[in-house]
Amino acid sequence: MRYQLLQRAIPVLLLPLAGCKVVGAPSFPIAGAYFPSWMLCGIVGIAVAVGLRVLFLATDIDALLSLRLFTYVSLGTITALLFWLLAFGP
Asked: What span is annotated as the signal peptide, if there is one (predicted)?
């Protein structure tokens, strides 16, 4: 009786672990070293934010912004997340 109860309880207790994978995080080799994919997405986001800052300064849009830091951080984050979704998403 006790063995049957334990046999039924184990799958229920292990159910939260069903989403875990044994495979490692997505990574790619650069010059022989493996880098995590989130680092590439972060670098792309930073590069786009800096590029947009230069573009906004050249076109005088930067003077119209009231929250510059928030704007550039948001643009970089949106770009990094969009790159993650397109490159490594479902």
From this structure: none
pTM, two decimals, is: 0.65
Count of residues making up the chain: 90
Note whether 88 and 37 are within 8 A (CB): yes
Which tens digits make up the pLDDT trace of 49-86? 999 999 999 999 999 999 999 999 999 999 999 998 99
CA distance 89 to 37: 11
Quote the CA–CA distance of 73 and 52 in Å, as a whole number: 11
Q: Could you give the maximum distance between any two Cα atoms of the chain, in Å?
A: 78
Whole-number Å distance between alpha carbons of 42 and 48: 10
